[in-house]
Write a structure and sequence with these properties.
The structure is a single chain. The protein is α/β, with parallel strands linked by helices. It has three domains: 114 residues, 3-Layer(aba) Sandwich (Rossmann fold); 152 residues, 2-Layer Sandwich (D-amino Acid Aminotransferase, Chain A, domain 1); 52 residues, 2-Layer Sandwich (Dna Ligase, domain 1), CATH 3.30.1490. Helix content is 31%, strand content 29%. It is built from nine helices and 15 strands. The strands form three sheets. The protein has a six-stranded antiparallel sheet. The protein has a five-stranded parallel sheet with strand order 3-2-1-4-5, with helices on both faces. A four-stranded antiparallel sheet has the order 6-9-7-8, covered by helices on one side. Helix 1 links the parallel strand 1 and strand 2. 41% of the residues are buried.
């Protein structure tokens, strides 16, 4: 079985741009973990896109079939060719600007297996506002999120962020009305942003397998997020950091699955543990950085679980062999 693995950042999606080290490091971590998992599965051969400016990953990963990308136009040609040649496609790409959604629709239109959530699911999850509205309609506790024209009068302090942004990119903490006016004057299109209250608490994430209304919690992770300048910076995460009260997190994952039955395969859920309890911030309908530590934390092959789900249509039962939490260190966005 040939699987096209397209990690957007390291696979040529930014071939005509300078790649921030933080993005390259996150992309590399997810790609390396996925390829190691796939390498252990019988009759699976990954075909992997690679930005020609980057060296190949470490030992043990060179057995994949590598397709090197030098030019943006070349990327389009390779995508068309390899989607036709492969049986399945595993995209790992940002939701920003509709990148992931377009990739998913392309695979669906080609009639090939998509090893992540559908384009329709990505369309909802890519928007923080649409996600929160959907979750709230299903009774899922969320952090209040508003479009700018819905948020007057503003209550400070607050957080503004791109509706389809990834990570801490473009996030700004605004303390006063004066700060708000200064920020608004700097932004070309304020309609692209959403507003949330600034909430104190512990930032967490869930690694979850979804199956059209069902959910299987894989791990609960602690996110290393700090305030930096006027925003936030993600320094890394501790995969499997939370071991107690996992039933509570499974219940939350079940609620999300019922509210967004389009979700399928691996997805990450960003949330915060605050005085009011758990509150969901957003959903990432793709592999996230936490995937890089799952194998060591659970003692299982998460890629095998996803392929089993694809083949059977059901979430597999498994007995994890819990290991120690795994720290994944990243370089903050704001350093570049």
């Amino acid at each position: 079985m040939k699987i096209l693995v397209f990690e957007y950042i390291t696979g040529g999606g930014m071939v005509d741009e300078t790649i921030p080290r933080s993005l390259a490091r996150e992309g590399e971590a997810m790609l390396a973990a996925l390829l190691r998992d796939l390498s252990e599965l019988p009759n699976v051969r990954p075909v992997v896109f690679r930005d020609a400016r980057l060296p190949l990953p470490g030992p043990g990963l060179a057995d994949a079939a590598w397709v090197f990308v030098d030019l943006k136009d070349e990327l389009e040609h390779h995508l068309k060719d390899q989607i036709e040649r492969c049986e399945a496609v595993w995209p790992i790409a940002p939701e920003t600007g509709g990148i992931l959604e377009r990739l998913c629709r392309r695979v669906e239109m080609a009639g090939k297996a998509l090893l992540t959530s559908s384009a329709d699911a990505v369309s909802v999850a890519a928007s923080k506002l649409a996600t929160v509205r959907r979750l709230e309609s299903g009774g899922v506790p969320t952090v209040s999120t508003f479009a700018l024209d819905e948020s007057s009068p503003l209550e400070f302090p607050l957080v503004v962020k791109p509706d389809d942004g990834i990570g801490c990119e473009g996030v700004r903490i605004i303390e006063t009305e004066g700060g708000w006016k200064t920020w608004a004057a700097e932004i070309d299109d304020v309609a692209r942003y959403v507003v949330q209250p600034l909430i104190g608490g512990e930032p967490l994430s869930l690694s979850v397998l979804f199956a059209h209304g069902n959910a299987q919690l894989l791990s609960c992770n602690r996110q290393r997020i700090i305030r930096a300048h006027d925003g936030f910076a993600l320094q890394g995460c501790e995969v499997g950091a939370i071991r107690a009260d996992l039933v509570m997190y499974q219940v939350l994952a079940d609620q999300i699955a019922r509210a967004m039955p389009e979700l399928w395969g691996y997805a990450g859920v960003d949330l915060i543990q605050c005085e009011q309890g758990l509150r969901v911030l957003e959903i990432n309908p793709r592999l996230t950085t936490s995937y890089a530590g799952l194998r060591q934390v659970l003692g299982i092959n998460p890629a095998a679980l996803i392929l089993d789900l694809w083949r059977s249509g059901r979430l597999s039962e498994f007995d994890p062999i819990p290991g120690k939490p795994i720290e994944i260190h990243l370089e903050p966005w704001d350093e570049h």
